[in-house]
From TrEMBL:
NADP-dependent oxidoreductase domain: residues covered: 22-273
Organism of origin: Leucocoprinus leucothites
UniProt-recorded name of the protein: NADP-dependent oxidoreductase domain-containing protein
Presence of keyword Membrane: yes
Stretch of the intact protein here: 104 to 396 of 396
Source taxon at top rank: Eukaryota
Molecular functions per Gene Ontology: oxidoreductase activity, acting on the CH-OH group of donors, NAD or NADP as acceptor
Keywords recorded for this protein, A-Z: Membrane, Oxidoreductase, Transmembrane, Transmembrane helix
Amino acid sequence: LPSFYTLPSGDKIPSVALGVWRADPGHVGEAVKTALKAGYRHIDGAWIYGNEVEVGKAIRDSGVSRKDIWITSKLWNTFHAPEDVEPALDESLTRLGTNYLDLYLIHWPVAFKKGQGQEVDHDLTESPYPTWQKLEEMVQKGKVRNIGVSNFNIRRLQNLTANPLKYQPAVNQVELSYWNPQPELLKWAKSNDLLLEAYSPLGSQNRVKETLEVPEVKSIAKELDITPAQVIISWHVQRGTIVLPKSVTPSRVVENFHVVPLPQEAFDKLEEAAASHKPERSVNPDWGVDIWH
Ligand code: A2P
């Protein structure tokens, strides 16, 4: 299985990352250090996760050189107005203690009106090009090396890329799991040179246990003498996506990094099982805008 993918910029993005959403303060630093020791070179974070200071400190303390680590952060909904983008990015850079990001994503296809609330700016939500142009400027300034989006569906991707972009979105980070495998989006992304990143790859908190008990997953794990989590994480990479398992448990952090190729028959069996039920999202915030349409 590929240990990295090459983006349009030529940068190589490692295929398995440590996700740090809901990794609580006091634990996330240890998880990052365990991950870097285990061989991870990719940490997927965001401003809204509220743990960038601890993540940054752990990275600096790890002894692994900054240039060898891929760091992703995300622009929160409150900061989509063009004049707010650079200050938001600067805050993430300061918190992380670095002077550039490898990847910066628009976290949601939803712009809040300026201020503290969650009132939606429908114009900027439907036409995010001004926000994107500012991200492009951040690339030109050297503050970020690659830019992308998160939680965009095909319509929203097409809507954004209909503009005369200097840089195409390099990735789209979305929920991908056994319960929500999104084969159409994956197919579309592949034919449009867009890499998908799988968040909540194990099923996100409440469904992880259920995912690891799926009969197909269990039987493949037994056949290959690996754990059910490793089956699922390997399946994601074999589908051609980046995978971002979250864990603050050291043994699981180590376990999740070991991906192996699944025999074609096992892969097909799992793909088919995942597609055979009605897709269900674990993550679907209600901001009074239909995110998925
Ligand atoms: P914890 O962080 O306490 O180790 P997802 O990446 O799909 O969002 O899933 C994250 C959840 O899955 C977390 O609750 C995490 O728990 C748990 N988890 C992560 N890796 C494993 C694993 N290898 N086996 C079992 N549970 C796991």
